Amino acid sequence: MTVVQIPGSKSITARALFLAAAAEGSSVLRRPLLSDDSEGFAEGLTTLGYRLDRQPETWTIEGRPAGPAVAEADVYCRDGATTARFLPALAAAGRGTFRFDASEQMRRRPLGPLTGALRELGVDLTHELAEGHHPLTVRADGIKGGALTLDAGLSSQFLTALLLVGPLTAEGLGITVSDLVSVPYVEMTLAMMRRFGNDARRVGDTFHVPPQPYRATDYLIEPDASTASYFLAAAALTGRTVTIPGLGSDSLQGDIRFAEVLREMGAEVELSTDSVTVTGPERLRGVTVNMRDISDTVPTLAAIAPFAEGPVRIEDVYNTRVKECDRLAACEQNLTAMGVPVSAGRDWIEIQPARPTPAAVACHGDHRIAMSFSIAALGLARDGIPGGVTLDDPGCVRKTFPGFHDALAALRREWAL
Question: Which of 59, 209, 314, 402 is least surrounded by CB atoms within 10 angstroms?
Answer without folding.
Answer: 402
